[in-house]
C-alpha cells in the first residue's frame, strides 16, 4: 500500500526536485556573478551609476536619521528635491541592501547584481512551474541578465531604475498572460502591484512597458478574438499610474509632460539605430561596447515564430519585430506625431520586447524539442559576448580624482566643474561623499533641477568661449571654486589668456593647474549671498542669448511681459524682448510706452514677437515684421550712414530666414534688397523704443561678426563682456530637518540657493533667476511635500477605479480563482 502511494507521488517529487535544482542553479549563478564582479573590482560600472549611488546613500543616511522620505538635499544643483522627479523605489531597495552590507553602498551594488540575476531568473522559473517547462525556463532565467540590452543597462549605462524594472518584467508578463490567456482574475492584483513598483522605479519605462503590453495584447486580440480581457488588462495598468498619484502628480508637474517636444525629438533621434547596427553581432565583439544592439538572435527566432508558431503564440514574436523596427530612425517621423511622443524612446522598450518574446517562446508548446534546442543555442551564442564583463566594465573616475580632491579641500560653499559631463557621473559622487564633502552646482540628471536653465547657459558659455559670463554666473550660483577642463578651452576657440582675464574680472584667481584642468578659486568666508546690480533685463525664451555677450543683462523669471510690475522693470536701463509673450497686446504696448517715458530703453527683436491673433501678422507698436530670406550672407548694411560689410553666415545657417521692418519712421539701419531700400533697425515717435530685424544678434554670435556686434553694443550703450556689479555678503544658513533658517546682515539678498516650489515661508521670499532671494534679515522656510492634496486625491480616484474594474470583471463573468 505504501509503495503504491510512493509510486503515485514520484512524478510530483521529481518535479519538486527539478524546481529545487533549478533554483539552486540560479542561486549559484548569482553567487558566481557577485564573486566575479567583486574579485575583479567591476564595481559601479556605467555612465550613470555613481549618481544613482549618491542618491541611494542619501536615502540610506536619511532613513538612519529618521527621515524616511528626504524632501531636499543641498549637495546638487544649489539644492534639489532628490526623489520628486527620480522615482524612489530603487533607492529604498538599495538602502535595504546597504543595511545588509553594513552600510557600504559599493557592497550593496554587488548584492544588487546577484539579486538582479537571481530574482529575475526566478521570474522565468515561475513560468516553468506553471508551464511544466523547467529546463527551458531555467535556461531563459540564466540568460535574462545577459541579454544584450539588459547587460548594457547594467554595465554601460549603470541605470539603477532600469535594472530594477528588468527584475520585474518576467513577473509582470507572467501575470498578464495568466490573466488574459488563463482567465485568472486574481492575477490582476500582482499586475497592479508590479506596475506600481515599476512606476515608482522609473515612470517613463513603466509607461513604455504599458505601450509594449498594448502592442502585444492588440496582436493577441487579432489572432484569438479575445478582446475584453486585454482591455481589462490595459485599464488596470493605466489605473495603476493613478494609484501612484501621491508621488506621480508632483513628479509630472514640470517633469516629463513639460519636456520640450523639439528636445524630445532630438533624444529620440539619438537613441535610434539603423538595423545594420542594431542587428550587427560583431559590434559587441570588435566595436564600441555601448553601441545599441537589439540582438539578431531574438529577431531571427521571432521571424521563425511568426511563420511556424500557433495563433496565440505569435503575439510576442510580432511585438518583438514591431519594437525592433520602432528603434530605427525611419520610425521617428511617425512616432513624433503620436500622443505623449516625449516618452517614446523606443530603444528603452527593448527589455520589454525580450520579456514578451520569451513569453511566446515558452508558450510555443508544439515546437519540437530538437528545434527548440537549436533556437536556444542561437540565443545562447548571441549572449556569449556578455560573459566578457571586462570589455563592458565602464568606470570614469580616475581622470578627475586629483582635481576633485583639491577642490574639496579649498571649497567653502560650492564648486562648479566645467567639464560638459565628459567625466560622467563620478564627480557627482566624489565631490559630495566621503570626508570633507563639497556642495556642487552641477550633479547628474540635470532635468529635475530648479537651476536647469542656469546649467544649460553655463555649458553654452563654456562651449562658446563666453568666459566672462561663465565666471560671473558661477559666482551668482555661489561657487567659490571653478574647475575648467583644458581640452574644452581649446575647443571653444579661445586661449588661456582669455580665460585668465575673465576669471580676474569676477575676482577668481588660478589656484592650481593640473595635467587636465585649471582650478580657480575666490577667497570668500563660508556661506555667502549676493547683492547684484544688473543694467539690463532680458525677457522672452530667445532673449537669454544676449547675456552671453552682455553679462550685465539679467534673465527674466517669466517670458510674459505682463507678469512684471512697472516698479520691477524700472530698475533697469535697458529691456531686451525676444520671443516674449503677452495676454493682451495693447496692455503690453502700454507697458513698453511707460518704460520709455521713464527713460528705459526697450529693444525689441522683431524676428521673435507674438503673432497677432486678429491680423495673423507679427505687429507690435504699429511696426510689422515682414519675412525674407538670404543666401550665404547679408547684403551690405548701412548703420547711421556708415557702411558695414557683414561676415558670411555659418554653414549650418547658409539659408537665413529672417524679417525686415515695415512702418519705421526713423530708420537707423537699412540695406538694399531687390532694388528696394529696406529697414532692419529703427524707431518711431519714441527713440527709447528700438525695433531690430534680420536676427543680427544671433548671426553676430554664430559667425563671430565683430562689426555687426558693434552695432548692437552701440544701440544698447553697453560694453561687451562687462559683468554686473556684485557684492558678496556673509549669510548664516541653518538646516533643521525639513526647515531652512537664513540670517543676513541686510535685507534683499540673493542667497544662491536654488528656489524650490515646495518652499513655504511666512516671510516674503522671491524667485530671482531660479535662486532664492530673501527680503528680511531673518527668514524661516519650511520644506513641504509638493502637491500633497492633489496627489492623495489622484491615488484615491485610482483606487476607486481599480476596485470598480475588478468588481465589473467578476460580475461580467465569474472568474477562475
Describe this structure in words.
- With 817 residues, the chain is an alpha+beta fold.
- It has 3 domains: 2-38 and 84-388, no CATH class; 401-518; 535-716, Rossmann fold, CATH 3.40.50.
- Helices cover 48% and strands 15% of the residues.
- The protein contains 32 helices and 25 strands.
- Strands 7-6-8-9-17-16-15-12-13 form a 9-stranded mixed beta sheet, with helices on both faces. Strands 1-2-4-3 form a 4-stranded mixed beta sheet, sandwiched between helices. Strands 19-20-25-22 form a 4-stranded antiparallel beta sheet, with no helix packed on it.
- Helix 3 (89-100) crosses helix 4 (105-131), helix 10 (228-243) runs antiparallel to helix 32 and helix 11 packs across helix 32.
- It is globular, with a radius of gyration of 31 Å.
- The two termini are 34 Å apart.
- Keywords: Membrane, Transmembrane, Transmembrane helix.
Q: What is the topology?
A:
Elements: H1 2-39, H2 49-64, H3 89-100, H4 105-131, H5 134-144, H6 148-157, H7 160-180, H8 188-199, H9 203-224, H10 228-243, H11 245-252, H12 261-270, H13 275-278, H14 283-286, H15 296-308, H16 314-326, H17 332-335, H18 350-363, H19 369-383, H20 389-392, H21 401-410, E1 415-418, H22 426-430, H23 452-464, H24 467-476, E2 481-485, H25 486-491, H26 496-505, E3 509-513, E4 517-521, E5 528-533, E6 536-539, H27 546-549, E7 553-555, H28 566-569, E8 574-577, H29 585-597, E9 601-605, E10 619-620, E11 623-631, E12 637-639, E13 642-644, E14 655-662, E15 666-673, E16 676-683, E17 689-692, H30 696-703, H31 706-716, E18 725-730, E19 732-735, E20 739-743, E21 749-754, E22 759-760, E23 765-768, E24 771-774, E25 778-783, H32 788-812
Parallel strand pairs: 1-2, 6-7, 6-8, 8-9, 9-17
Antiparallel strand pairs: 2-4, 3-4, 5-18, 10-11, 11-14, 12-13, 12-15, 15-16, 16-17, 19-20, 20-25, 21-24, 22-25, 23-24
